[in-house]
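Async update (no meeting this week)

Hi team, since we skipped the sync, here's where things stand on the single-chain job. The sequence we agreed to prioritize is pasted below, unchanged from the tracker. I ran it this morning and attached the output directly underneath so nobody has to dig for it. Comments welcome in thread, and please keep replies under the output.
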Amino acid sequence: MRGNRQRGLGMLYGYAGKILHVDLTTHQIAVEEPSEEFYRTYVGGSALGLYYLFKHTPAGADPLGPENTLTLALSGVTGAAIAGQSRCTAVAKSPLTGGAGDSQAGGFWPAELKFAGFDAVVIRGASPEPVYLWIHQGEAELRLAAHLWGKRTRRVDRMLQEELDDTRVQIAQIGPAGEKQVRFAAIMNMANRAHGRTGMGAVMGSKNLKAIVVRGGKKKLDLADPEGLRAIMQASLVGVREDEDIVGLAQYGTIDILESQSAVGGLPTRNWTSGAMPEARAAAISGPRLFDEFLRGAAEGTQMKTGRDTCFSCAIRCKRVVESEWEGRPIDPASGGPEYETTSVFGSYCDIDDLGAVSYANQLCNEYGVDTIAAGATMAFAIECFERGVITAKDTGGIELAWGDAPAMIRMLEATLEREGFGDVLAEGSARAAASIGNGAGAYAMTVKGTELPAHMPHVKRSLALVYAVNPFGADHQSSEHDPGYEPETIETSPDKYGRRMASLGLTEPQDPMVLNRQKVEFALRTQYAYSAMDTVNVCQFVYGPAWELMGMEELAGVVTAVTGVQTTVDGLQEIGARRLNMLRAFNAREGLTRESDTLPRRLFDEPLQGGMSDGVSIDEAELAAALDEYHRMAGWDLDTGSPTRETLEGLGLAWIADEIGV
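Output:
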């Protein structure tokens, strides 16, 4: 059955059909109504944002200057009544990498922007004074925000709800860290959903834009095939109740994997010198302990009712809600709770097993608005520098940093978020901080292209060594599928799920996690296209994906078809993903990033891990170099420069970008 009304000529179902353009320098606001062909080509999310980044940001622009273009983009499926669609992608030139910056967040803000009448907001220039953008039912205006400047996220939420006399407004904002242009600052919504990676909050702060507040009208999209979408939704509910992966995610959140990661030697510990914590210490910061003792309602035994939160129209409810205290300081449920990455970086990276301190660090990051991965990894970098005598108490303002010392770590984190004392150095991120410190500090900065390593170790998942190296915005654990999803035992044990999904991507030769051969390179690239498509269609990677998720790429193709009316296949999604990945890479080429940046920290090659199941393991540099050559050939990138070739770009309908970068 078709939708309940015909769309206007040249417009797809699902889309609002309007993009809001805001010039903060002049305070001018305009509305663009793109063609159907535009939406078919760029779809939404990351690729749509990259289009405007190319068009409006000149080569060599300062990421923290007014010429940088910041886009927050949805897609056609955003706001549909199915799990995993309320996502937004923020795109700008990254102040961490100098290349393309790209970051996703969920919550209710994305769907509300669609209901307010827009598919994206494109922000240029810089306001001479703090402002916020108020979007409501197809209208938009800039309002003064000096009274909000300097306030933390939870307080700003309350202030804006009172000011607008509406508790249902959704607010995407920067905290004080974004105002101070901490380079790993995030854009936050609900005070706990973060566009965390690549420093998008610093870009927004450089523009004097405090918040984007949205309020929509009707909460229902016009769909091409409502009954088809309903059928997919109903089928997925079986997985919510019965799928072991999804049930575990719902109950414990992503932190559920921490103990198993440590058991196999894949939990970064002491700034990547080890892959494991002792069993009891890992248990102290685990998902079950968070569930039993820290989730809201734990004392009354009502965790499943009050300790979980969700995004618009999602049945999984995987977000943690913590209510506790640490050293007399309350941990507010409004700040959410730590995920696996957050727990790892403030926990095992720093050799800390105090879950209260980890939860409090998470709250600080959400209140100030920063990426927890970069913040925690930078703390670990600083601790190791102190332990090795690279910096001293004279440098740190008297803070005696040490492995396992949670109070000292928290004090240094607070100084970093405020840009006070030595924290001003660390607020630049560990790569820039290392360059500023000198004295060999670079050896302890675990970054790729200036982006801190996330908590999944390529030592035990070999394709991640390749993906971390080639990913355009630095090491990222959500840019491809991980090796265990393609190992023979997994495929044999679950052929109807893992086997079928991998086969749909053309992957039929499962490999051991510890190899990095031609088949594994193909696995890395094809699943990278899949994840790239998800970041363009703008869906949650815990709901859709090529392996363990609630639904696979076939179901995602069905969702796109049912919502927009565009007949979509898995191969079509792969092309969407390839287009976005090549746009990212081409923008980097325009900004001077070459294949030379496709590498890993020397520690991963030169220093075998110590302790646990991965004791003595390091990354084989020659093996990675061979995999890089194979990857570039498969991707259609120049082996010398790492740039997409003209043939590759033209094949994806991007000849104009080939002209732009001169290939």
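Quick observations from my side:
The first strand starts at residue 19 and ends at 23.
Residues 463-599+620-661 form a domain with the Aldehyde Ferredoxin Oxidoreductase Protein, subunit A; domain 3 fold (CATH 1.10.599.10).
Reply here if anything looks off.
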